[in-house]
Amino acid sequence: MSPIQLLLLAVMFYATDTVDMDAVIDFLKMKYSKSVVFFICDSNQLPKIYTKINEENISVRVVQINKESVIFPPNILPYSSYSRTTCVFDYSCDESLPILQNFSDLHYFNITYNWLFLAENDTTVDANNVLWKLKSIQMNTDLTILENVSNSSEKSYDLIDVYAKGRHLCKDIYQHKYGIWNSDKGITMVPGYNRYYLRYNFDGLQLRGVTVIDRDNVTSKDVDSILETPGSTQGVVVFVKYHYALLCILRDYHNFRIKFRIARGWAGRLKSGYRLGLLGILARNEVDVAATGIFQRTNRHAEFDIIHLSWEFSAGFIYRMTPQLSDASGGGNFFTPFDENVWIASAVTMIVLLIVLKLSSLIFSRIFREDPHISLVTYFLEAVASIAQQGLSGTVSPRMPIRIILFSLLVLNLVLYNYYTSSVVGGLLSSPGKGPQTIKEIIESPLTLSFRDIGYHKILFRETKKPIIQELYQKKLRPSREGLNTIPVYTDVSTAVPYLKKGGYAFHCEMTEAFEAIADQFDAVEICELRTAAGLFADLKLMSFVLPKRSMYTELFKITMMRTQEIGLVKRNLKIYKIEKPICQSGSRVNPVELPGVSLAFAVLVGGIVLALILLLMERFSWKQKSLNGLHEFLH
């Protein structure tokens, strides 16, 4: 056994007259015991017990069965032991069986303890009769019977290994000889003996299983056909199929059958405290195996045993990047190269320069009469011409201060223009931007959201207290979609992928479920526009393959899963069920300029035309008024 495991106990019938203490000591050495508890019927053997055991530097405790009218097992053998403990029990006296049944009712016959049974005085006591009345003998029991070999010329004993494949399933108790002890050679093991290989074959035993399928009218007979079907299936998430594949490896290797019980969800609790879903079934020990993974929340560790760290849960939003998204820099928006603050600073700088130029012109025109009077509109046109890299007019003032100001304006616009054009060209030649990456950005985006039609999404929105998820529900899910030609709030992968292909939609699921359908339906360019964002279960990552707490199959299945991982079967199944995101293979391409990207430029043009027409009408009206006033003065 592993040094980490606690070695307990042999419920052992020992008598110095009929059982040689050397056999007991050799057994303790084989089990690397550091302490031993003797349950004896005859107190005459106490001196030899203490003398022999103390010589081996092993802690000893003796319990006299006949004198102890009430034995409370936890007072003698605590559930957690910090040393490798063995207990020796005499099952030949009448009081032995009730005490053994007390230990059995509290499930002491498990891998935590190591038991050895001996009969001291009455060799006619039937060990099988005693064993059959102990209900908690199970697959991980470490129990040995030291049986006298009557036809031997020398004192010798057979070491009999005792275990059961499922007493709760009304199965028999098995006994296998794994060694022999004699006074000359000590303990000799049976060649090829290995406890794991001795117990691994369940001989077609039917175990009780549970899985999660969120569908109506599913029976135990339908489970295999549903979970064996490749691809996305209604009401079944991909990690359930993956864990079913792992369970099939265990089933085929250990040769057992499974009758499934179907749960609609993983967890839940009524107001009375009654546990619901798969977790409640495991906590009540109503099944032996689970064909699904479960999250390793801290408050759940007392309700299941982990036999394999199996799956990395990666739920999130999947959408196609389109120019309509607010930060789609690759869509050809000519106003995105500069940040909003850069645009504001540039506008303020231009206004200040125009004011300085106009004031300078007024000052110089008063000082030097020959200097031409330049209007503010002229300076404005020159500023626009410099921004557009079109140069200045020929009416530049000969004064050095104004020329220095204009020269500084040209240099400033040259630098800004280079940054601007390089950013625009780079954006057109590169792939689209990142898109929304957080739940908050998803809420603020124009994307229409849909969720995988599975129970944990509905439970999350019903029970969550997180403000960000409540905001998501109120803004994106609660508004009615009845009568609209759009994606449903809850749907499956086959329905969602065509909407993702259109763009403007985001689908929340475990992303590996959708990648296979996306790879089949998206072309190379559309795959390059595929984006993912953080999901609603960002705090939940690692899932585990579990059994009920203190299951008799935990240690056996844990060893099998470790060997399955070593030979590559786990990696093979991950390749099958955990589909990776399709790789962008379209290469470099130019993204076309979309109308939303240049809409503001057209708005400026239209605004200028409208303003020009208004000014034209105003000038026309003003000219007409002046003409009428002049005519009126002429007549009078």
Q: How would you concisely characterize the structure shown here?
A:
The chain is of the alpha/beta class. The chain has helices at residues 21-30, 46-54, 73-76, 96-105, 127-132, 195-199, 223-228, 238-254, 277-283, 340-367, 376-387, 400-429, 439-444, 455-463, 467-477, 493-502, 512-521, 524-528, 554-566, 569-577, 595-635, and strands at residues 35-40, 59-64, 85-90, 114-118, 142-148, 156-164, 173-182, 186-189, 205-212, 256-263, 289-290, 293-295, 304-312, 315-320, 448-452, 490-491, 505-510, 530-534, 542-548.
Break the fold down into its secondary structure elements and pairings.
Layout: H1 21-30, E1 35-40, H2 46-54, E2 59-64, H3 73-76, E3 85-90, H4 96-105, E4 114-118, H5 127-132, E5 142-148, E6 156-164, E7 173-182, E8 186-189, H6 195-199, E9 205-212, H7 223-228, H8 238-254, E10 256-263, H9 277-283, E11 289-290, E12 293-295, E13 304-312, E14 315-320, H10 340-367, H11 376-387, H12 400-429, H13 439-444, E15 448-452, H14 455-463, H15 467-477, E16 490-491, H16 493-502, E17 505-510, H17 512-521, H18 524-528, E18 530-534, E19 542-548, H19 554-566, H20 569-577, H21 595-635
Parallel strand pairs: 1-2, 1-3, 3-4, 4-5, 9-10, 9-11, 15-16, 15-17
Antiparallel strand pairs: 5-6, 6-7, 7-8, 12-19, 13-19, 14-17, 14-18
Helix pairs in contact: 8-19, 8-20, 10-11, 10-12, 16-17
